[in-house]
Amino acid sequence: MSEKKFDKGRLLGSWGAWAAHHWRLCIIIAAGITAIMGVGVATVRMEFSFYSIMPENSVQVQDMKTIVETFPAASSIIVVVEAPQGPDSRQRVTSAVDALAEELGRPEYSNMVDAVQGRMDMEYFRQYGLMLTEAEEIRRLGDLSGGLELASFFGSLNDDLEREYSGDEGNLAADEQLVTQQFESLAQLLRLLEQAASGTPVASEAVATVTDEFFLGSGYLLNRDGTMALLFIQPTFTINDFGPLMNWVPLMDEIIHDRAAELGVSAELTGFTVVGKDEGETAEQGLGVSSAIALVLILTLMVLTFRMFSVPLITGVPLLIGVVWTIGVSSFILHRLNIMTAMYMVALLGLGIDYAIHLLTTFTQERAAGAEFADAVELSFRKSGWGILMGALTTAVAFFALLIAESDVVRELGIVAGAGILCELAAMFLLVPAFLAWRNHRNQRRGRESSRLFNRVSIDSTLLPRLGQSITRRPLVFAGVALAIGVILITQAPRVEVEGNIMNMEAKGLASIELQDRMVEEFDMAPDYLSVTTTSLEELRRLSDEIDGLASVKTADSIIPYLPSESEIAQRIPAIESLHERLNQTDAGTDVDAARLADEIDRLWFNVVELADLAYLSGMENLAATLGAVAGMDSDGIKIEETALDTLPGLLYDLSEANGDTPVSLGQFQLEWGGALKSLLLGMQTTDVITPDMLPQQLQDAYVSEDGSRYLLNAIPTQNPWNPDFRAIYAAQLATVTDRATGMLLASDQMVQIAEVDGVRAAIAALIVIFVLLFIDFRNLKLTVMTLLPLILSLGSLLGLMAIFGIKFDFINIIAVPLLIGMGVDDAVHITHRYLYEGKGAMATVVAKTGTAVMLTSLTTMIAFASFIPSIMRAMRSTGIVLSIAMALAFFFSVLFHPAMLVLVHEKLKLKIAPWGSK
Amino acid sequence: MKRLTGILLVLMIAPAAFTVDVDAILTEADQAFTQGSIYSTSDMIVSSNGRVRQTMSMESYSLVTGDDTQSLMIFTEPRRMRGTAYLTVDGEIWVRFGSTGRVRKLRAASMRDSAAGSDFSYADMGEGSAGVSANYNARLIEENERYVGTPCYQVELLPTSDDPPYEKLVACIAHSDNQYRAIGYYEDGALTKTMTLSDYRTVDGVDYPYLVRMQNHAANSQTDIVTHQIFFEDPRVNEGVFTVEYLEAME
């Protein structure tokens, strides 16, 4: 039975003897290869963002990449500026936005900052404001400014409020931010009016400012209570430019933090680009920590097990050299490492060491049995070499089978993982005998015939020999219990879930992630959304109309609101001309109809209070508070103070009863205010057809591609779209309008889907390949199936345990499936080989000898995988947990179930497991 | 031959005999909402993002006359909303503000708009009074669906009007009592709202859900209407209540 195997073993034994004999040459060869691979290591790109692993063949991902690369503002970094709550919050936050915009706009930052947008370009609106206003609104503006008298203005304002918002909180909610800002301006206008009515003159600038703000707004993007504002930085790089991304985003962060601290506000960065940088940063940190933990623990375990202080040299150096070779090969083939392949490098520490463990275990056992050094090396290769080689080849081929995958990321993993196994195997076969010989040479030179340490070597434990004996005595019990556990766990497997929220895979506590929820709460604006591009303005208009009407969409952001259609222009131009005609025929005067004005202010009180009630009813707390402040009421609607709305009517009635003896300051106020309003509205005189190239640069950067050929529409959702339940609604509704919506949301969904499909496809392919390889090796169907069975049980049980413990699959930890298939079979292969070598009745020896090595290799592999668990990135942590469980299961079924099955089948049922054709 | 004919007859009749009469089930399910007149007191609890935003108490009056449904909802708590009332009559909506005492007719609101800041739309409220299935064609999708463990008929309701507030409704009606347990509201290809009806109690021979919850999936909010008392054919409900004059005379 073992004649053929013996030949194979002898071949490998000869290699071991040769390598030990020519150890210097082996070290030189390894150094030469390492030098060549070092070039690859030096030039490899580290791309650790999730964006970098999105499936290239997906239409959504291609569209998303087109958006990132062709729309200048698509990579914008969002700065959330926040001032402590207080009476001057708004002032502080807007000043800080201006100061930060000025700071980042300095020439020394031009290499990393293309543009900074702190507030909207109001000049454009001063010119085109009326063309952007609906005809009906323009006519109302005519009423509002009618006669340029305060009484007419407030009368029309009351009509507007009663017409527009009366009882319609839905309409109010849609405009909440705008309405809040407008009522703040109104409160200021009332205060100035009160001042004027009391006989104190009001400065012209104050009147002009309040008029501007009432009609145009401040231009800042503020939250509801004015304590937060947004600033947009358009970087010179995109998320694709990994170097600038990793260096310049932290630099911007530092500049912004320092400047914000000087200004007495806080500022945090978020947005797609910043999240990409954070992913890279946390992945790098995680990988660094994991590598260090894995290496230290593995080598410590090796020292303790083999009781050799030179083990870190004998096994650690080849291990690291194997990793260097793998990175080099990956670099030459793929030019990069992504987050999955980089994680695999840490896993490789646990895999590569296995080959050294098998070799050293046999070597130390032979030495303990009295073999000379050279014989011990040869025997270690002869006895363990074929098992190692077959285990490595099956694992590598299983990994290479991932090349049939649809997604680049899985194919890359296949190449790197397969190459990694072969590199580690080569490094171990080349260097372990060489380093052992070097060590032996040093010992001999020092006059030590044999190592005293080796004399004390004993890696045998009593546990595994006893286990081996128990399995031999009661194979049915062991096989039955293990099988029952496997079957029970497998029944739970269908309940395993897939992670739908990519944010749950990121590091916890990242400002860029936490701000996403805050932006939804404070600005009704999620930083992640779905987008669609089109080359046709008509198509864009249709999309805008239809998407705006979806329940899950807050607003459809594009150039459409700034680009009136032909029919809108046809309606607006006459309305603008009529308004201008009226304004040109009217001049602001100093005659104030105090009684009518008093009536209208009185009426305004009613409208403000009713609007406050509606805002309260609809949960618009900040608007309710703003309106309450205008009317002097607290949050319960109880009157707590007098405001201009209360005092003005009395003041004005008194003035009207004084027979026209109004103070000069009130007349002057009306004159100033009327003049400012007239000037503002007449300034909006342009009635040209607006084309995209006439829009302010900041709007063009956001919504028009660099070459002007495509237009972008962002469907801003009503909630944080990373919530999977909401995302399903949002994506489904958008799909009724367009099949071209894209964004990280859909790309990550595709990633999960492709990973699932690829996972299953790769698993099947790997199983087939492993089956064929084992079949060729064993040339016995029963033995092949029996050797595969522990792997299948492990895989099913892993899914079952994940379901039981609520661990979800994501597109990172799904790496566990191919890794388990590639590596999980090794343990059973080693046991099968040793059983074939030792023969019938020797299962106790097999479990005692090979089981020890298998236990050690499983431990080192688990250490490597578990080293991901302390990582701050949750995707890495989850991968660590899943892979550790996977390896524990593979060990469990390989050491308990598989030997019991071999004994049952071969010794109890007397079925043949020898290769076909053998005697 | 006779035997064969008998078997064939049984085979032909059997499906018909066991065919579920969806219309009859819906009529029974709608019974709680189509009573001639209803007076009730209840709490309306509105939550957003898992946080209770408002808890309001109200008195509700509704009267069905022919095809018309009139309703009046008067808030009694909290203090701020006391006396605020919504009147729906002849398809028009009037609101009385408790804080100012003014009565205003709402501008032509869309039936999809939120009613009184809740997750119920005017369409939901209107449909409730006329019976959920009033403006829909029904089709049984699944005879043995389970809703929270309760065996249900799953019925799809497709709108009969040209401009319906919803694309479709999918109702789960319990086998045990033919009462609604849940109704899913679909807009633009997605389930955007779900109404669940529970705590059924029998009042004057009518099973009425004392807890009605509307979950708005698009806004991550929900509104519970918890009924405290309900009276059918109550003398407090009369034509005079459903007038603008009544609102104006309110104190």
Keyword list:
heterodimer, A: 919 residues, mainly alpha, 4-stranded antiparallel β-sheet, 9 strands, B: 251 residues, alpha+beta, 13-stranded antiparallel β-sheet, 13 strands, disordered N terminus
Question: What is the structure about, briefly put?
Answer:
Chain A is mostly helical and 919 residues long.
The count of β-strands of chain A is 9
The helix-and-strand class of chain A reads: mainly alpha
Q: Biggest sheet of chain A, in brief? A: 4 strands, antiparallel
Low-confidence segments of chain B: 1-5, 7-18
Estimate the strand proportion of chain B: over 45%
What is the overall shape of chain A?
Answer: elongated
Mean pLDDT of chain B: 84
**DSSP helix fraction of chain B:** 10-25%
Q: N- to C-terminal separation of chain B?
A: 82 Å
Largest interface: A-B, 39 and 37 residues
Number of helices of chain A: 33
Give your account of this protein's structure.
The complex is a heterodimer of chains A (919) and B (251). With 919 residues, chain A is mainly α. Chain A is 68% helix and 5% strand. Chain A is built from 33 helices and nine strands. The N and C termini of chain A lie close together (7 Å). Chain B is α+β, with helices and mostly antiparallel strands and 251 residues long. Chain B contains four helices and 13 strands. Chain B has helices at 2-18, 22-30, 122-130, 244-249, and strands at 37-48, 51-65, 68-77, 85-89, 92-96, 103-105, 136-147, 150-159, 168-174, 180-187, 190-203, 206-216, 221-232. In chain B, strands 6-5-4-3-2-1-13-12-11-10-9-8-7 form a 13-stranded antiparallel β-sheet. The longest helix of chain B has 17 residues, at 2-18. The A-B interface holds A 162-164, 166-170, 521, 549-552, 606, 609-610, 612-614, 616-619, 636-638, 718-719, 723, 725-726, 728-730, 732-733, 735-737 and B 46, 48-49, 53-54, 78-81, 84, 93, 95, 97-100, 102, 104-107, 109-110, 113-114, 116-117, 187-192, 217-220.
